[in-house]
């Protein structure tokens, strides 16, 4: 019965999303999606989830202890790390040129890693290193430029709020937190607030970043914008049979013919449940999109807004479809991506799998097998990090 409810809710949500004419209209017409009062720490992981992880690591339990050691022994956790901020981060396609792109993303992941390690160990050196990294960037950065600027901004801004939430609301001693907030509002938000009409993983990363910033700033308008974009993009990224003969589309992209839709879906003309807009591009970019879908649902839940009944079935099917073919247990049929798949899903299954399997009780055979075989999940060095540690079998 629960599965049928998820499917029905997803179908109804798709119909609603398809009737909206643009992200701007969705924002202006819909009631606020933001909570009446924001919960902190509340981006990616809640205090209860972090407490669960801390207890497991203190007890030496697995898989959390191995995952903790993986994070602690990574370069991101180095207490001698030197921040590398730039006033202008310039990133072209595939980070060419790369003027500060890798430095910014990795410093943001490092700040989050240090904040997480502080929470688990209560070793103040990690909190101070996280603060050092965030302060260095908030004192320096003024802009992102070149063609990949929106994506670069989104990736970094998906990690910064996770770190900032833990430090500000759990550690507490951060004199320059206001300057960091100003950085997010004045440097990051303007670059991404209008979303993207590129491949779907771009806008999904943007949505994740905007939602996290909205929580940290307690800015309801930014949070609402993120969810308005989400309601349009997710049904246009993951196909369900209930969508009809063709996938849903984002109206602003003007994909108004079958030919345009097939082209946007990487030449894939056969649509089956769980297929994503980027499956036939490669599984790596598909993983970016699925990861952000799961992150937004989890942060919304922490903020007291359960969006799993509406979007959980799309996430479950996307994970299951990609996990099946990532496992490479059978030949790829000719109708799927012309018989050739580019695998490499990345460490992106833990959050969605935990939500749908551990908490909601859905059997997810392929996702479970893939997830458990690759533990501990590390980082993709862009915006995903340490999710076996934070979300494996986490009931909170």
Automatic annotation (TrEMBL):
Top-level taxon of origin: Bacteria
Signal peptide positions on this chain: 1-26
GO cellular component: periplasmic space
Pfam families for this protein: Alginate_lyase
Residue ranges constituting the Alginate lyase domain according to the UniProt record: 97-325
Positions in coiled-coil regions: none
Annotated keywords: Lyase, Signal
UniProt keyword annotation of Signal present: yes
Any GO molecular function: lyase activity
Protein name, entry field: Alginate lyase family protein
């Amino acid at each position: 019965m629960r599965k049928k409810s998820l499917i029905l809710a997803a179908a109804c949500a798709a119909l609603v999303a398809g009737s909206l004419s643009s992200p701007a209209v969705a924002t202006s017409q819909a009631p606020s999606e933001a909570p009446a009062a924001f919960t902190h720490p509340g981006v990616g992981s809640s205090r209860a989830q972090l407490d669960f992880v801390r207890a497991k690591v203190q007890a030496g339990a697995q898989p959390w202890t191995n995952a903790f050691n993986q994070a602690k022994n990574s370069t991101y956790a180095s207490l001698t790390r030197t921040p590398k901020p730039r006033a202008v981060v310039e990133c072209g396609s595939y980070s060419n040129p790369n003027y500060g792109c890798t430095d910014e993303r990795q410093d943001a992941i490092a700040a989050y890693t240090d904040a997480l390690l502080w929470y688990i160990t209560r070793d103040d050196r990690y909190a101070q290193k996280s603060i050092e990294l965030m302060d260095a960037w908030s004192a320096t950065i003024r802009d992102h430029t070149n063609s990949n600027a929106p994506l670069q901004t989104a990736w970094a801004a998906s990690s910064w709020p996770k770190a900032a939430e833990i430090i500000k609301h759990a550690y507490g001693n951060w004199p320059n937190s206001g300057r960091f907030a100003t950085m997010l509002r004045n440097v990051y938000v303007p670059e991404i607030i209008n979303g993207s009409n590129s491949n779907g993983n771009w806008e999904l990363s943007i949505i994740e970043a905007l939602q996290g910033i909205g929580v940290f700033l307690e800015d309801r308008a930014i949070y609402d914008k993120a969810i308005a974009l989400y309601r349009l993009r997710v049904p246009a990224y993951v196909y369900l049979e209930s969508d009809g003969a063709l996938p849903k589309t984002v109206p602003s992209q003007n994909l108004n013919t079958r030919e345009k839709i097939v082209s946007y879906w990487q030449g894939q003309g056969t649509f089956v449940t769980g297929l994503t807009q980027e499956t036939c591009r490669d599984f790596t970019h598909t993983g970016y999109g699925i990861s952000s879908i799961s992150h937004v649902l989890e942060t919304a839940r922490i903020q007291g807004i359960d969006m799993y009944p509406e979007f959980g079935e799309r996430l479950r099917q996307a994970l299951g479809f990609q996990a099946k073919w990532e496992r490479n247990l059978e030949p790829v049929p000719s109708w799927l991506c012309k018989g050739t798949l580019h695998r490499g899903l990345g460490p992106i299954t833990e959050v969605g799998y935990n939500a749908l399997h551990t908490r909601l009780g859905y059997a997810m055979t392929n996702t479970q097998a893939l997830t458990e075989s690759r533990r501990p999940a590390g980082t993709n060095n862009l915006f995903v990090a340490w999710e076996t540690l934070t979300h494996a079998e986490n009931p909170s």
